[in-house]
Write a structure and sequence with these properties.
single chain, mainly alpha, MetI-like fold, 81% helix
């Protein structure tokens, strides 16, 4: 079999399995419980309708997607800046590391939805609460991965740069940051996926007006489950696009680049 064809078949196989299980589940629930469970075909038709301009909870699907993306980008950006800064500082300043190393580890153990009461007390219901939950959840994996990347740098690189007269600024930007880049990208990949999942859950609880999570939970009142399932499909596609395709390719290219450097 042609390798590209075989690779394509293996890539779509998980999706075919999910669709088959989904179809069987929908027919089984309709048969045994008498409940209309949206099938993949019904969901696809509804999704096409939403993508071509049909209204959903007073807005277009694009409005819900845009609102979710704005919150996600805002929360993830805060987490990325704080996480990268913390990881670089903790990896290069021993006293700071000793004083704070356990904090990201503790935050990593807290489920994203556990921040709901804290977010409500601090910000009430709305945008700020959702952004806060995303930032708090995505911060820990980014900080830990960057910190680990800096600590794993070959000490000989640092000694060589120091012997060549590199100051703290040059050492930081020319040695520590580039050498920790693979771990940084891995942390961002984990953080962006974690933040996306928390965003949807947060919108279901503290969201208002628009957003994919908000739309899913609100659709239950008029039993518009096909629209809810359409939103779930959109959520899955966006998550896969960012976490697997975008960051996956970046990690792959970095691995290939490191391999070429090792060969030379």
């Amino acid at each position: 079999m042609n390798p590209p064809i075989k690779k394509t078949k293996l890539a779509i196989l998980p999706f075919l399995i999910v669709l088959a299980v989904w179809q069987i589940a929908a027919l089984s629930i309709l048969h045994y419980r008498g409940v209309a469970f949206p099938t993949p075909c019904q969901t696809l038709l509804r999704l096409v309708g939403l993508l071509t301009g049909e209204r959903f909870l007073d807005y277009s699907l694009y409005k819900h997607i845009g609102s979710s993306l704005q919150r996600w980008i805002a929360g993830f950006s805060i987490a990325a800046v704080l996480g990268i800064s913390y990881g670089l500082l903790a990896g290069s300043i021993h006293l700071f590391e000793k004083a704070t190393a356990k904090i990201p580890q503790m935050l990593l153990l807290i489920p994203g939805l556990a921040w709901i009461p804290v977010a409500l007390l601090l910000f009430g219901v709305g945008e700020s609460a959702t952004i806060f939950m995303i930032a708090m959840t995505a911060f820990a994996p980014i900080a830990i991965n960057v910190h680990t990347g800096v600590k794993d740098i070959d000490i000989r690189l640092i000694h060589a740069a120091t012997m060549l007269g590199a100051g703290r600024r040059i050492l930081f930007f020319k040695v520590l940051l580039p050498a920790s880049l693979p771990s940084l990208v891995s942390g961002l990949r984990i953080g962006i996926g974690t933040g996306w999942r928390v965003l949807v859950a947060a919108e279901m609880v503290v969201g208002t007006g628009a957003g994919l999570g908000y739309a899913i939970i609100q659709a239950r009142w008029n039993l518009d489950y096909a629209s809810s399932f359409s939103c779930i499909v959109v959520i899955c596609c966006i998550g896969l696009l960012c976490e697997q395709v975008l960051f996956g390719r970046i990690e792959q290219r970095m691995a290939e680049r490191r391999g070429r450097q090792v060969e030379h």
